[in-house]
Amino acid sequence: MKNFLALALSLFIGFLIIMSLRNNVAFPEYGTVNVASRVSQAYLDRDVTENPGTVIFGESVNLESGPANTVTAIVADYRSFDTLGEVTVLFVSSLGVALLLGTKKQKRLEVDFHPNFMLRVGSRALFGIILMTGIYVAIHGHLTPGGGFPGGAMIASSMLLLYLANDSFRAKIKGFKILESAAGSAYILIGLIGLLVGGYFLQNVLDNGTLGSLFSAGFIPIIYVLIGLKVGSEISGVIDNFLTEEGV
Amino acid sequence: MLQYAAIVLIMLGLYGILTKRNVIKIIVSLNILEIGLNLFIVSVGFVDGGLAPIFTSQNATNDLNFVDPLPQALVLTAIVIGVGTTALGLAIAKTIYAKYGTFNLDEMGEK
User: Fold this and answer.
1) Structural domain includes residue B57
2) Would you say residue B54 lies in a domain?
3) Is A217 left (phi over 0), alpha (psi -120 to 50) or beta?
4) ipTM, 2 decimals?
5) Pairwise CB contact (< 8 Å): A149 & B80
6) B106 lies in some domain
7) pLDDT tens digits for A185-238?
8) Closest by Cα among A246, A236, A216 to A72
């Protein structure tokens, strides 16, 4: 009876969503969106105030927002304050995990699986490659797909590999905590520099450079690398909390 | 149609949250709901034959047919927050298991 009620409720909500989307002016058919009529066109034109000009890869200099990747331009430039809040949410959740699972004296969780020599050495070799890929993705966040959040997740996954492949391995968690706090503080400091020099919090006061070159977009790559380090160290801390238990 | 698939995922997740009594299964249902929601938001910005909204040497100007970048940016935010809430939920589940020795909500509190 309870399952039937839940099924009816789920179907009703799905039906409600589909009916409210049908023939809705604000909601065009799948694939027939006119981006030019939306606010997103201003982000693509890199101009939210006046009449848009043309943006050309490798030629346009000192646009309103410098990254070649428009998603990065939105996440780390136009809506950077939003991202600061998001990073705070991630910080609070990792703090919550540490409060729930962390204890003073910790040792690795006892598991029946004992890795052999080949697995330990092979994981060490793979660790470097995964870590380098993560750092590459974080550094090139303003030019290519990816950025700080996927790059940070890759850095954390390289730590997870070491944890899974060696049952006595523990990272230096204190270092992660310091890295995390330093990266978070540096993000806020960059925001305050923008406030003091440019007049707005997180204002990009550096030169935006040529669209598409590695050293372009002012503060954006710096912010994204900081986000990458922060996310990577936070998720690594969460992994460590899950794979340890109380003991000597 | 991607949007209907996303709505089906949302319904599946909601059904799982309402019926399951195992904490881990509730968290997995929450994740399914979240993936459905993310898929739905991304599908709102899709344009037929659209390019990824990144300027490269091949797609060099803003006259081209790019997909809407704003939903992608919003989903990037939502995915990260989803990871945070899932980690916190799993930590609570681990604490519950350490205290009661079961993941099932019905079997808790009998001691």
Assistant:
1) no
2) no
3) left
4) 0.84
5) yes
6) no
7) 998 998 888 888 888 888 888 888 888 778 887 888 888 899 999 999 999 988
8) A216
